[in-house]
Every structure is written in structure tokens, then in C-alpha cells.
Amino acid sequence: MSTSQDTFSKGDWIVHANYGIGQIKGKETKVLEQEKQAFYRVKTFNGIYWLPVEHVDVDHIRPVASKRQMKRALTLIRKPPAELPDNHRSRKKEISETFQDLSLSKKARMIRDLHGKRVSSRLNFSEGDAFEKMKKQFLNEWSIVRAEDRATLEKKLQQALKTSIAKSSNGDD
């Protein structure tokens, strides 16, 4: 699904499924295939990308979460972790689909569940990589939403993950 209206304004924060969180820094005109096209210039924590103004792919982009949505995501993280599939391929597919999904709640659950797997057994390299990337994206978004230092929020996230493991050990839901 795409839209052809001016969806974003300079200064807006967005989340892209592939690039993570970024801020609209303005519009620029570029020549592609001998045609002038307007793009949003988006600055991320890792660089810059250009998003076509005429065809913003809303399946891969969303505005940053609200404080309420972040609070709900943390509530999910504090719950006992769910078991991931035993089958490696099924687990890899589930992790990959969650990584590409824009849903904050799905990512929060996967962060919690991967952390639970890490504590109870071990994460393989790709699982560990996905876990760290999702945590980083979560923390980046949370720091924008709360206007707080990432290091402080990382401690809060670690505490929420510890709570999740403690509830799992106690058999709480």
C-alpha cells in the first residue's frame, strides 16, 4: 500500500522496517531515470536514506510509537517469555518475520522471548544478532519517545527482562 500525499513533515520521526528509526530532515529533488522526483531525506542513527514522496510505502513505515504504546510494549516484555519453536527453520522464519514487521508489540515479545531462550539455553549467531538489533531499534525509539538517555533506558529494559525471567521461574503469567 502506498500514498501520494505529503505524509510527513520536516522533523517527524518515523520507523522503517529495514532502516529503523529516522527523522525527516526535509525534501529533496533527485533525477532518476531522467525524471525529477521528490524524496524525503531521512536521517537514521546509521546514515541517511531517501524516501519517495509520491509513493510512501506505508507497509514498511510507521510513525514512532506513543508513550502509551511504549508502556504497553514494556508490559509485554515483563511477562514470562514464550517458548520459540524447537525447529531451527521455523524459529528462524518467525524471528525474520518479526524483524521485518513494524509492530512494536511483536518486536517487544520477540525481544522477551529471545532473551528467555538466551537465559535457558543459548542463542545461535543469527538469533543473537537479531536480538541485539531489535533491542537497539527498541531503545532508539524509546529514547526518542521519552526524550531520555539511551543508557538509562537500557538499564530499564534489562530490569524488565530480568522481571520476565523471574516470572518465568515462578510460573507467573
Describe this protein's structure:
The chain is of the alpha+beta class and 173 residues long. The chain folds into 2 domains: 2-63, Thrombin, subunit H (Beta Barrel), CATH 2.40.10.170; 67-170, CarD-like, C-terminal domain (Methane Monooxygenase Hydroxylase, Chain G, domain 1). Helices cover 49% and strands 23% of the residues. The strands form 2 sheets. Strands 5-4-3-2-7 form a 5-stranded antiparallel sheet. It has a two-stranded antiparallel ribbon with strand order 1-6. A hairpin with a 3-residue loop joins β2 (13-16) and β3. 22% of the residues are buried. The model has no long low-confidence stretch (mean pLDDT 90).
